[in-house]
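User: I'm curious what two different proteins look like when written out as structure tokens. Can you demonstrate?

Assistant: Sure. I'll show them one after the other, since each token string lines up with its own sequence. Here's the first protein:
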Amino acid sequence: MMKHEFDSMVGITTSDECYERIEYVYMNSNDFNTKQEIADFYKQHDMNGIEKIYKQILEQKKERHFVIQIYSANHSFIFECTGMYEALEAITDAATTFNFVVNADEVMCLLVEMKHGKKLSHQNHKWGISLKDGEV
């Protein structure tokens, strides 16, 4: 979602700093599936509601994170991270390093499913990913 789209939906111009928080909440919360849902929430609860959810997300990220395991011929590498984009980057970097193919769109869909609790893990012959509780 672009800032101008959100501003149009809520009928005001948000500051860049506020929009960064709004976008973060939209991308990392299980509560919003559409742009309209977060716009409606903002209209009802303004930045106070966004800040409350933002802080909850940060606390949850301390508790739950992605564990990525890369399998090569002689070794197994483990990488832990908190964010979906960080996980995607780790998997695509590993694919380049260890010469296997991943579809970034499919991996992102998998990470979103995991974030929303629809899937707890994934594994194939080259890499695996799961969610783990506790700090990284």
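Here's a second, unrelated protein for contrast:
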Amino acid sequence: MSYIEENEELYRAWIGQKKQDKYLEKIKKSGFSFTGLIVPHLLLITRKMYIETVILVIIQIILDLFTELLGIKEETTVIINFATNLTIAFSYYSLYEWNIRRKIEKYREQGISDEEQIKIAQKYGGDKITLKVVIAILVLIISSMFFITAKEIILANISQKKDDTTNNKAVSSKTNNFLEENTEISKQKNNTFEELTSTWFVEDCTLKYDLEYWEESIENGHQVLKYKNNELYLYYAGNAEIENGKKMCEKEEFRSYLENDIKSNLAKNEPPLIIQNTGWDKINNDFYLLKVETITENNEQSQEYLDIYYCITDNNIYTFMVDVGSSIVEYKNEVEKVIYTIEK
């Protein structure tokens, strides 16, 4: 004897008087429910199958979200929903039998006799519209409205993000085009600059100069850059050996010592050179630079200006001198453009 046959009286009580025999027969055979195909939620709620209703709603929400996010056509969505309802229609009576069986066992575990359970089932079972049923229907309606609103917000946000991404890509594309155009312009400028720039080879160093303004020459046995159409000369005066020059230049004591030594030697010059200003700088990883600005009086009692640049490496001090008939200030930038290109 099956479980249903052993507890048939309890099953009948929970099914209710309406179509009792038909329901019992379909429960035994797991028949098809047309009501479950058309209005599955309402059928499950009126039969107090609340757990099954919640599971169905969750499944349909998940399917609905996925179809929207994946951009599945509306016709396909209708087919998916129909397939879900069809599944409920075919499984409804099996689910209902499982629901009644849970109730029977629950009350027995609580120590309620079958006679008492029959009275409870006759009062609350079947498809009677109880307060719980009304509340469940209201919850279903409100939940559906909430879900529709939430889905619209989610999809709107996703759509906005896609639009933002598209706009960002468009902006990025324009920016890239702009950068490419400017890079090409920059390359053209660099190529033009390279065409106008030449290299001055001094000992084991090189300096860059602009061919438009400078030209190489030899004056008094020294390598010279002469500023065109002017009396400005940039001399290479020679070099002296030194040990750990760069490391020494990092120390304030050595800097002061070197400045004082240079000041003493320049004072011995005839006529003497008077230091007006000094300054230190670092050109790159290979050179420290000491700039010394001097002034002297020539035989005609007029002032002459002489700037000296000491480029100091680990092993050598390279000396450059700038001689100009008038104030050197207006040409200082042109001179230092050359000095600051020095490389080993």
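A detail about the second structure: The chain has a mean pLDDT of 82.
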